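Researcher: Here's my situation. A collaborator sent me these components and asked whether they could plausibly form a single complex. I don't have experimental data yet, so a predicted model of the whole assembly would be a useful starting point for our discussion.
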Amino acid sequence: MSQVQTSVATQAILDEVKPAVLPRPVLVENNRSHAWITDKVCGVIEGKTPLWWWICFAVASAVASCSVIGFAYLVSTGVGVWGHANPVNWAWDIINFVFWVGIAHAGTLISAILCLARQNWRTSINRTAEAMTIFSVACAGLFPALHVGRVWLAVLPGYLFPAPNANGIWPNFRSALEWDVFAVSTYGSVSVLFWYVGLIPDLGTLRDRFFKRGDKIRSAIYGFFAMGWRGSNRHWVNHEMAYLLLAGISTLMVVSVCTIVSFDFATSLIPGWHTTIFPPYFVSGAIYSGFAMVLTLLLPMRAIFKFEDLITAYHIDCLCKITLVMGTLVGYAYLMEFVIAWYGANPNEGFTFVNRTFGLYSWAYWIMFTCNVVTPQFLWFKKVRANFAWVFILTIFINIGMWFERFVIIVTSLARDFLPSSWGYYSPSIVEILTFFGTFGVFSVLFLLFIRLLPIIPMAEVKSVTPQADVHGKHS
Amino acid sequence: MSTHAAPAPTVLPAAIPAAPAPAPQANAGKALGIGLAGLALTALGLLVPGNASAVAVAWLVGVVFWTAVAIGMLMLVMIHHLTDAGWSVVLRRQFEHGISGFKWLLLLFIPLLVASWLGAGDIVWPWGNLNHVMHGGHTVGHDPLYEKKSALLNLRTFSIVSVAVFAFWIWISARLRKASFAQDLDGDAKWSAMNHGTSASGITLTALTLTAGALCWIMSLEYHWGSTIYGMWFFSDCIRGALSVGLLVQLWLYNRGDLKGILNKKHLHSIGMFMHAFTAFWAYVAFCQYLLIWSADIPEETFWYNLRELNHDGSTNQWWYVGLGLVFFNFLVPFLLLLSYKHKITPAKVAPIAAWILGTVVLDLVYNIVPVLKDAHGDPQPFLSLNLVWIVTAVIGVGGVFAWSYLKSFASTKLIPIRDPRIVECITYHE
């Protein structure tokens, strides 16, 4: 079979056939030069720290302190400070864990799966999405680590880590909770590595620019992390290969982590949890919430730094469409759960779903349904996708809805278990609420530091999709 | 779908304007002949006493397999339009011919409905006859589980759902084909926009209708059992079947010379990557379903797998080996082979892999459908039996009709969508 064959047939042939004309959107607007891209992205780091950043940082730190105080109180007092009680012995700790893990999935999906699928539009947004992934995993990891109450036990053998405890008892390797320890820690490690490998060329650029400006300290720091990057052909070949391999590994991680998180529930016998669609349902839900959060973060960032030429309307449109697809998939999963709950004719299963919809927690169910199923339907309309204020508002609703999804799954099934005499109503304690609220501060603090210290748009990758970088010389 | 392609070059490959004469349709008659012969041979099985259900179930396997291929093609056409893909324009044209087969598949499905209506009702689906005796001695009509599902599982609703899903697929396929073929004539970009819009709404409805088809036609064969992931399982088979058929057709056309200068190794590589990804997806779905049911160990769920493992006396039956074979042959073998770049781009290697996948997709459907045929003890009839003959003839028979429909459509339009806005990207598709 031939490789690509471009014959010498003339333009006249093209004129004769006259294919329909439908230009593709450009990925960098206004035909910006490579130098402009470098100046624009590095300018965020090189410039003076703006006042808004300090204000946001102070507010985020204050919010984060809620988590610090909440966790300190938990550790010094015990898990009784949370609102857990029979029959709801699992609530905001696992809800918040799943919520943050879900958000963590969009970054790797954008960087890895879209990379393998050669979707070039991902280049402007993947750095931010990857950063979001890492910070979300950090927030997620707080909950399982701290929910043991005596936090030092979490890192001692026999609790989370696979080694026998003082009584010679090993963790249960058949428990999906133990699989979580492996899955999430591996996912976090691979995500950091993937992020870092992508950063290396840009760190080299920053090193050189600070050196030219005479800022030797920052040049040395960036130079240390750039690991001697010189941009040679050999460096690029190795870099591309490492990036591709990590993309392949990360793709598996994206799917496996949320699958294993879904196993936390689906391997049990609890009605509403034990259902075979949970693995793909959790994966699509995670991507859904992650994309919503990417949009929530990108839209203000784009406006503040005037990145309109780099994060174009086309990028936002693509993100909105994937959000719509994932929201629809989540809606499909909700539908299948109800269909099979009816079809299965199991009274416990049927009761669970009727209870979710019309029981004591129906308010939570309808918030979830409205935010997750109704909200994304607005994204069918191009006018909505092009109105970034609307998109921002919709993504906030989706974020809320996805948190409620985990609340509905976990709390409604436990609050009405097999034994009616033990039924109860769970309400979170103020400690739980503040601890969760504080994780948004933790996330924001990390994200603000990222904005100030690292290039938020991967310059090298964006340059590679500009017309100037086209080997066919099609730049104007 | 990925849209990695070179920007429009100033020249087109010489093959475009020539748009080779659609000679392949000369084989249409041959395909129809093979199809009718296969169907006639399957029908001959009715002459064997007590064999009616086996023939009907084999017929169901044949129709469901080719319907799955057509659904996969329909989904891929819509995904192509929604992602504004460039590389797959030529492949899309083959799928557009393939989806012309829905009306004939409906026609071939109708005998199953007619047989159910005119006969006792349980020729395929046990719930079709309220007097059907279940394992344990009670009848369907006295089964409390059936009573709760009877709103769906009755012949009238079942027939309406079956015809409705086919009607939808016929309608949306016709709409997509019409716009695409019209663009060949006038080169108007509005047809691309129209197909984009049709696909946006169509893909959601196709997902729902294929799920309805999977639940009614396959899952309800053991109506005590249900699995929420079942629609996704069927979807994975649909896409794998469509990709494999699409690849084989493309190579056939290339070897005839029709796609010379149009199809290149990068196209094969991309199709191979999709085959690889969906092989993994099938394994993911099948494994999740198995693991979660095994882990919970609830008898009302595990019986579906137990039927495919053990006889009533505890001995291992042949379906156990079929299930095990699926793990190796439907997942491991194609997955490992498709890891290789060379295997994906070499026609002599990727074609057998595609044919292999088609075979194992049939096996997967057989594993899900055929154990409905029970012996006197309530055990599934053995895999290696006369039933296999009817299955093979039915798959070939329906396949012949499907191929005939494809070739008829092939003759009605251009070889490739010559005026598609992405045609140049497709033909110059490269690393």
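Model: Some features of this prediction you could bring to your collaborator: The radius of gyration of chain A is 25 Å. Chain A has one domain: 8-202+244-466.
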